[in-house]
Amino acid sequence: MFLSKLTNNFSRAEFACRCGCGLACVAPELVYLLQQVRDVLAVPIRIIESSRCECQDLRVGGAPGNRYRAGDAADIVAEGIELKLLADTARRVARQGWLVKEERQFVHIERDCESRPR
Predict the structure, then answer these.
(1) What would the pLDDT profile of 70-87 be if each residue is shown by its tens digit?
(2) pTM above threshold 0.85
(3) What is the distance of C-alpha 106 from the center of its chain?
(4) Residue in 59, 52, 87 with CA at minimum distance from that of residue 73
């Protein structure tokens, strides 16, 4: 079901493509990471963007090979939380294999496909 609950605080609908096509592809590991961030900060996390269909990716000028198409990326904000704190918290709870970048208006999280287990 499209509106199915993925964790205590996130539903599949929150990860849906912004074009309205219905695509809601999201990696369980990403949802788990975002839930951990939410639990640590004890405030709701808003998904700005996550899944993208091919058309939406072209519309927004997505870079070749970006992780939105695979459901391995999300842009997030948290009301009342500075982006630096949000990014630092995500870095702290993320396991190896995730990149976290503080942008101007959101924090970007994506699977690091270049990362190799040690």
Answers:
(1) 899 999 999 999 999 999
(2) yes
(3) 11
(4) 52
| Sheet order of strands, 98-102 included | 46-49, 73-77, 107-111, 98-102
- Token reading at 101: 């970048």
Question: Tell me, what DSSP letter sits at residue 78?
Answer: -
CB 117 within 8 A of CB 96: yes
Phi/psi at 23 (nearest 5 deg)? -65, 130
Q: How far apart (Å, rounded) are the C-alpha atoms in residues 88 and 73?
A: 17
Which pLDDT tens digit goes with each residue over 16-56? 999 999 899 999 999 999 999 999 999 999 999 999 999 99
In this structure, which amino acid lies at residue 67?
Answer: R
Full 3-state SS string of 36-51: HHHHHHCCCCEEEECC
